[in-house]
Design brief:
This protein is α/β, with parallel strands linked by helices and 444 residues long. Helices cover 48% and strands 7% of the residues. Helix 18 links the parallel strand 6 and strand 7.
């Protein structure tokens, strides 16, 4: 390593090691860094702001994701191939890929939550994910001493929502090792979900479309926030549904007002991350938005989407979408065709509308076209991304995540955006927070 780079590395990892009481993950990360070739070390030093190593390791050493985070940061800095060479094991997304199960302790409840995360990321069945999430919630709601006593008495399965599989994970974690199931999932999740968009993925600062269990999501708001931070995000828009979408438990005025307060409380406790009060608001059949100006004024991001009467004729759908786009509060046009190309909900054809008119309206009224990263949506299709590019539109690459692990779906969206030649400067969630908020509030 060139001499000027040695001291910053030493200072950084000395601080990290002290903060984490010499935890194995910090020490191993330092050992890996000092093996970097000169060119790689220089690149890492130059991008310390992007890597945010201090932030990544500032949590309690008992929290999960310390080792995972280092691997993700290495991959973001060096690319998959460089990260593989870095640690000498596949994809380098987690040190657990190498045989280190017995070197890292993990909190029992955090182990359950992280298993749920990896299952969500790989699109496992909902019932499997819920088994681990509900077990984690059940244990988190108990006094810590009672959890310890039940572990000692091997009576965890007497707790509602804790079954034999989830109990086994807790018992294994209580011995001071990473549970085997978690280690296997970390290894399976080592590689990115899609390739080709790595540079763009590194440039993204946040996600403007996500859901919690306040509407039809599968996790608590705090869990979505923690997962977003682990993704390296600086901000996340919480866009639960509007009231008309009753099947998704859309938020009425009282519940949305309450949620805005919860978001404010979370932001008061976070000094390096911003949760944006937001909404995915329905574009109604008459083109109006399913919310009031009084509520929308209080939000930082408004994603407007069509969720009903998707088989309407082209003229009807075009007028409806343009009505939503021209609303002064609309910032992002969500999953514009409504199509489904795979998945448990089956397939659904694209809605028909005059795309040239719709995208011209987006360009004129400064509304970003969402590139929805959900693999079952892949919306809009590539031909429409090209039309939106030609129209001069901005874009937002979002996950539409309904669970923490789905926040990793950005890999899919970034690969598609890169393949279609979408420039970085036209993707709004590559922007710093101040610039993003200036844009979202400019028309109000």
């Amino acid at each position: 390593i060139p001499a000027p780079a040695v001291r910053p590395i030493q200072d950084l990892f000395s601080a990290l090691s002290a903060r984490n009481h010499g935890s194995w993950s910090c020490i191993s990360a330092m050992a890996v860094w000092v093996r970097l070739p000169t060119d790689a070390s220089s690149r890492l030093i130059a991008r310390r702001d992007a890597l945010a190593m201090d932030r990544a390791y500032s949590r309690s050493p008992r929290q999960v994701a310390q080792v995972v985070t280092f691997g993700q940061l290495a991959r973001r800095a060096l690319g998959v191939a460089g990260a593989e060479r870095l640690v000498g094991c596949p994809a380098a997304a987690t040190v657990a890929t190498c045989d280190v199960r017995h070197h890292e302790a993990v909190d029992e409840i955090a182990a359950l939550s992280e298993i749920a995360y990896w299952l969500e990321r790989e699109r496992a069945e909902t019932r499997r994910v819920e088994a681990y999430r509900k077990a984690a919630w059940a244990l988190a709601d108990l006094p810590p001493q009672e959890v310890r006593e039940r572990i000692a008495a091997r009576s965890l399965t007497e707790i509602p929502h804790v079954g034999s599989s989830t109990s086994a994970v807790v018992m294994e974690a209580s011995t001071g090792v990473v549970p085997r199931k978690l280690a296997e999932l970390r290894q399976r999740g080592a590689a990115p979900l899609a390739t080709g968009g790595e540079e763009l993925r590194t440039a993204l600062r946040g996600d403007l479309h996500s859901h919690s269990n306040w509407s039809d999501g599968g996790a608590r708001i705090e869990e979505m926030v923690e997962a977003a931070r682990r993704q390296g995000h600086e901000y996340l828009a919480l866009t639960d549904h509007s009231p008309r979408l009753t099947i998704a438990r859309g938020l009425d005025e009282a519940r949305l007002t309450e949620q805005i307060g919860v978001v404010a409380d979370i932001n008061e406790r976070a000094d390096d991350f911003r949760l944006l009060p937001a909404i995915e608001v329905d574009i109604l059949e008459d083109g109006k938005l399913d919310s009031t100006s009084k509520l929308l004024t209080q939000l930082d991001v408004v994603v407007a989407s069509v969720h009903s009467k998707l088989r309407a004729d082209s003229e009807t759908m075009t007028l409806r979408m343009v009505g939503g786009i021209t609303n002064r509060f609309t910032n992002v046009l969500g999953h514009c065709t409504g199509r489904l190309v795979e998945g448990g909900r089956g397939k659904r054809p694209e809605s028909t509308f005059d795309a040239e008119v719709v995208f011209a309206a987006c360009a004129q009224f400064d509304v970003a076209v969402e590139i929805n990263s959900r693999p079952e949506r892949r919306d809009p299709p590539s031909r429409l991304i090209q039309l939106a590019l030609d129209a001069g539109c901005l874009f937002s690459i979002d996950t539409d995540a309904h669970a923490p692990g789905q926040l990793a779906f950005l890999d899919y969206g970034c690969a598609r955006a890169t393949a279609n030649g979408v420039p970085l400067d036209r993707i709004v969630n590559t922007w710093p927070l101040d610039r993003l908020l200036e844009w979202t509030h400019a028309k109000r």
